[in-house]
Amino acid sequence: MSKTINKKIQISLLLIATMGVMSGITVVSSLPLISQTFSDLPHIEFLSKLMLTIPSIIIALFAPIAGIIVDKFGRLKPLYTGIILFVLGGSSGFYLENFYAILAGRAVLGIAVALLMTSSTALIGDYLDEMARHKFMSVQGMAVALGGILFITAGGLLAQLHWSYPFAIYILPLFFLPLLLTALHEPEKHTHVESDMELEAKLWPIYLTAFFAMVLFYMLPTQLPYLIIETLHGKPSTIGLVIATAMIFNALTSRQYAKLKARFSYVHIYIMTFIFFGTGLFIISQAHTIAQLFYSTAFIGIGFGLILVNTNSWFLAKVPAQKRGKASGVLASSFFLGQFSSPLLLQPIVHIYGIQGLFLIVSGIALTTALILFLKDKFSKR
């Protein structure tokens, strides 16, 4: 563990991080078109959303196992296995024509991301000390956001040509392999110093926070495309443009995380996160035109730019080196279980109140969460 890592390692870890965001939002713009293409299937509008959420539930189920594998067999073998599975499963929609076969490919993608997330998170903890991690997380958050802009924009443009074309983007990580193979090294083994029970007691608040945050935040890629296409009569490229604009603010905010962390606690940053996120959702709930959606992007982007970086930094500050693989698996499981649960938990609200009604209700939940955290922090200091 050190205060710095060389540029090749840093770039390698950043490329791996962009694969996480690639796994989800790349095909967002295709969802309404997939619904139209396979309109003969019953409940296709709901089933098309599973293109995003099937990987999430697979990650949620497999990530703890992946974490045990990473602790037992090292970081790099699971990492490279994950990249190969990522390419095969992610690109399945490009060359398969059966809807359920494509869903199976999305499940393989979930296994791949579970291996990637657990091994890469463990590597960051192994390579860097706490202060250096805050700085790296700032850069990583920005890289993920910029990657999100690239992939969502490319996906939107390709979806206008054909719904299957965005799936070809998943072939891209093959070109990362030469750099990763030459840059990354296996960290040394660490001895056990803390019991599982003691560790779990410290980490459960982080796991629950990750789950709750993803239930709220993942409503954007699963619900916003339908608001834009069906309610506001936009184009698939509009979906990518709105989300990409939010990602710009995401990148700018993530880059400032180290400076924010030097001044504020983890709880204070969560309070800011939910205030910005709730404000952005309220603006979406009141929008009547596509142009009005863009007013929300600054608030949504700032909120999302903080939530993932803050949670990962909090996590790595708590978990010891010899348990990073297993604990990273449970954290990934929490994130993606929240993603998978998001449309299932929120769909009844959409059915009763509509999509904009959902955004209004979740806005209230986010702002109430910020208030509860603020009051809890004040009382704990007293």
TrEMBL record:
Its main location: membrane. Residues 9-381 form the Major facilitator superfamily (MFS) profile domain. PROSITE patterns: MFS. Gene3D superfamilies: MFS general substrate transporter like domains. The chain crosses the membrane at residues 12-34, 46-70, 79-96, 102-124, 136-159, 165-184, 204-220, 232-252, 264-287, 293-315, 327-346, 352-375. SUPFAM superfamilies: MFS general substrate transporter. This is MFS transporter.
